[in-house]
Amino acid sequence: MSSEPSGEYDVIVIGGGPAGENAAAYAIAGSDRTAAIVEQELLGGECSYWACMPSKALLRPGHLLAAARAMPGIDAKGLDVEAVLAHRDRIVHNHDDSGQVDWAEHSRIAVIRGVGRLAGERLVEVGGRTLRARHAVVLATGTRARVPEVPGLRDALPWTSRDATNLHEVPGHAVIVGGGVVACESATWLATLGSEVTMLVRGKALLANAEPFARERVASALAEAGVRVLFETEPESVTRTEPKDTGEGRIHGGAVTVRTRGAHTESIEADEIVVAAGRGPATVELGLAAVGLADGYVEVDDHLSARDVPGDWLYAVGDVNHGPALTHMGKYQARICGDVIAARAEGRPLDGARYAATADHEQVPQVVFTSPEVASVGLTEEAARRAGYDVDTVEIDIAVAGSSLARENYSGRAKIVVDTSADILLGATFVGPEIGELLHAATIAVVGKVPLDTLWHAVPAYPTVSEIWLRLLEARRS
C-alpha cells in the first residue's frame, strides 16, 4: 500500500507522528473511507524516536536507582551506561518504523514517503505528485527545535533535543541553554549518566509555568545532583574547536567555549552544548500561502478546523496549532478531529462534547519527569487569579503512610487550587518520586468539575501515596 499510493483519498494527513496517526485512524474508523499519511521521516514522529519515548527510557533507570538506594536492604551500586543506552535503542526500535508502517497498513492507511505541501483546496503535493482529499487535509507536522541567534552558536553545531535523547557518547561536561521541561529533563539524565552539567537559564526560575514550590524543588534537586544552574544568564558567544557533524547524539567536534552574560559573566569550557530554548512550528515547507495562510502556527477552532480557511476541509492538530506541546494533548485533539471529519463526511451534526476540544484550554495534564517528578493539571494559582477566578489554595507536604513505605526520607508536596464560587478544583500540582501516577485522579476531578463535597466520598486506599487527597481536603476544611 505505501509504495503505490493512489491519487485520491478521503483524508490526507501531513505528518506521521502520534497526532497524525490518531487523526487518520479516527477519521476512517468503522467506514469504507480511505486515508493516507504523508511523512518525510519516520512514521511515529518526534515522540516515538526523539522525544517522549527515548527521554523517558533514559530517565527511568535513574529514578529506579534512587528508589532502590532509598530502600533499606537493597544493594544499589550504580548504572551500566552502555546497558541504559542499549535499552533506549530498543525503546526507539533502532529508528526502524516498520512496525508503525505495519500498523498503518493493517488500519487501511496508506503511508506516503516525502515532504507534503499544500497546493490548493484539498490538494497536497508530494515529490512532484498531486494528491486530492475528498473530505479533509489534516496538518500534523509538529514543531522543530529553535537555535537562538547567538554569535557562533550555529557554527558550533550544538546538540538539540534530538541529540540529547539519542546520545551515543556521554559528554564529560555539557552546557544546557534553557530552563524549561526539555532542559530540566536533559540535565537530569545527563547528570545521572555521569556528565558535569551547567545550565544557562535566562529567567529567574526553572519551569516558569509551574507552581513556585515545584520550580524550587526541581532546582534544589538538580543542585544536589551536582548540576550548576546559573539563573538570569545566557550565552553571549560560542566558539568551538573543529566543529564536525559526527552524527546524531555524538560529540560534534572539539572543545566548546561559551562566553556568558547576565548575572554570571564567565567563560565556560565544555565538551558539548545542548540547546533547549524552545521550539517553533514546522511549517516552512508546508505551502500555507497556497491556501491563504501566513507561515507559522495554524489557528484552529474547537473542532480543529483552520480558522482562516473556508469550507471546513483543512484541520491542524498537535503542536502545529500552538496548543499544548504535549503528545497526549496532540492525540486528544486528533481523536476529536477525526470524529469531526467522520461526522461531516456522513452528514451528521456536531452535537455533543466529543466533537469539541475543550481540555486544551484550562485542563491540561502534564508530568515533568525530573527527579523529583512534577505532575500538574489545570491552572496554577497565579494563572487562575490572572484569569479572574476567586480562588482558595491548599499546599501541604506529602506525608502519609504510603509515602513512608515508598522510600525512606520521602519528600513531596501537593497543592490544589479551588474555585471558591463553585467549590471545584481548577488545578492541582504534585511534586515527589513517582508522583506522575497520582495525576489522572486530579485530571478527572478538574475535567469533571467534581465538587469538593463529592471528593470526600472518593476514599483513597490505605496505605498509598494517594491518601494525600484526604489530607488536602482535611487541610481545607480546617
Automatic annotation (TrEMBL):
<dbReference type="Pfam" id="PF07992">
    <property type="entry name" value="Pyr_redox_2"/>
</dbReference>
<dbReference type="InterPro" id="IPR050151">
    <property type="entry name" value="Class-I_Pyr_Nuc-Dis_Oxidored"/>
</dbReference>
<dbReference type="InterPro" id="IPR001100">
    <property type="entry name" value="Pyr_nuc-diS_OxRdtase"/>
</dbReference>
<dbReference type="InterPro" id="IPR036188">
    <property type="entry name" value="FAD/NAD-bd_sf"/>
</dbReference>
<protein>
    <submittedName>
        <fullName>Dihydrolipoyl dehydrogenase family protein</fullName>
        <ecNumber>1.-.-.-</ecNumber>
    </submittedName>
</protein>
<keyword id="KW-0520">NAD</keyword>
<dbReference type="GO" id="GO:0016491">
    <property type="term" value="F:oxidoreductase activity"/>
</dbReference>
<comment type="similarity">
    <text>Belongs to the class-I pyridine nucleotide-disulfide oxidoreductase family.</text>
</comment>
<keyword id="KW-0274">FAD</keyword>
<keyword id="KW-0285">Flavoprotein</keyword>
<dbReference type="Pfam" id="PF02852">
    <property type="entry name" value="Pyr_redox_dim"/>
</dbReference>
<dbReference type="InterPro" id="IPR016156">
    <property type="entry name" value="FAD/NAD-linked_Rdtase_dimer_sf"/>
</dbReference>
<feature type="domain" description="Pyridine nucleotide-disulphide oxidoreductase dimerisation">
    <location>
        <begin position="364"/>
        <end position="469"/>
    </location>
</feature>
<feature type="domain" description="FAD/NAD(P)-binding">
    <location>
        <begin position="9"/>
        <end position="333"/>
    </location>
</feature>
<keyword id="KW-0560">Oxidoreductase</keyword>
<dbReference type="InterPro" id="IPR023753">
    <property type="entry name" value="FAD/NAD-binding_dom"/>
</dbReference>
<dbReference type="InterPro" id="IPR004099">
    <property type="entry name" value="Pyr_nucl-diS_OxRdtase_dimer"/>
</dbReference>
